[in-house]
Amino acid sequence: MTQVRSVAGGKRSSIADALYRALALSLAAITFVYLFNNYLDFWQNWPGAAGMFGQAPLHGTALIQAWVQLASYVLTVAAVIVIALWTQNRTFASDAALLSSVAAYVVSTAFWAVFLIGIVDAVISFMRVEGLLPPVFGETLAQRLGVSSFRGPYVHFPLIVVAGVVACFRRRLDFTWLALLVVVAEFQIVIARFIFSYEQAFMGDLVRFWYAALFLFASAHTLVAEGHVRVDVLFTHFTQERKALVNAWGSMVLGMPLCWTILGVGMAGKASVINSPLLYFETTQSGFGLYVKYLMAGFLAVYAVSMMTQFLAYFLDSMAILRGQAESYPTPKPS
């Protein structure tokens, strides 16, 4: 999906092509603007762009904040359209490669985050169970590490930043290693239980944490590799143009609404299924387990964003065929 194709037959891109590109790129950009505004709404208590149209009038700082949030959407779309028209000679394949790269970065960051957090949180939980935190970190810090609202911002969030930096230099499909990590985590439970008669809640939490990440983070790559289930009665016998038409419409009519439904419902308010665990650093009831349940709610957002970005890349690859810029879909690179 990330291969850049040349324009077939030397055709130049038209304004219509630029607008198709602008549609896909603006939808991708709005997704990230939405996520940032969601952070401002519920973590920083901004009124939100919708506050401009609420029944209660806004005043002062709240009014300025609402205007800024509303303008972020309008200016983002306007900027993307201008850039698309300014770069009319750019091919669909180039933008599809860009979107695929963004999806790969999101997934790579998520992998390194769950890998680092899983290891570090398991070590902290083990030390807490065995009473090793006070001798190592002191009583005060040991008590704070037992509170999710402290461990999240001061342990997990810095590790997420580190993961983002690592992902800048490594875009391979590292999430495939999660399958091995899940096996290793489960194997150490078996060894500890049946040989040493030792088992703690955090050990099972680590397996679930990594398994959930594997299931959700691999979806975007599976879409590229044609690995998702397709009810195929007629599609195999279609021409490349008809396949492209089906995939383009499917991406926009089926794929995009699904992803936006996840984000819209999951982030509609403070009590929503994604926002609520993240806001309150929700944990399991197992006492000395991992403090990562709230992050598992965020996995849904990672899934929706990566899939949405990849659906848009899929749409652009389909448009390349329909608009005569390519003869067939690019062959996915081996992972």
Topology:
Blueprint: H1 15-42, H2 60-86, H3 92-129, H4 133-137, H5 139-145, H6 148-169, H7 177-194, H8 201-217, H9 219-224, H10 240-266, H11 275-280, H12 293-322
Helix pairs in contact: 1-2, 1-12, 3-6, 3-8, 3-12, 7-8, 8-12, 10-12
What is the total tally of β strands? 0
- Estimate the global geometry from the Cα principal axes: globular
**Annotation field: number of helices:** 12
Helical fraction equals: 55-70%
- Name the beta content range: under 5%
Radius of gyration: 23 Å
SSE pattern, N- to C-terminal? HHHHHHHHHHHH
Main β-sheet, in a few words? none
Distance between the termini: 12 Å
Question: Features of this protein?
Answer:
335 residues; mainly alpha; disordered N terminus; globular; single chain
Structural notes for this entry:
- It is a single chain.
- Helices cover 69% and strands 0% of the residues.
- It is mainly α and 335 residues long.
- The chain has a domain at 91-322.
- The radius of gyration is 23 Å and the shape is globular.
- 34% of the residues are buried.
- The model is unreliable at 1-12 (pLDDT under 50).
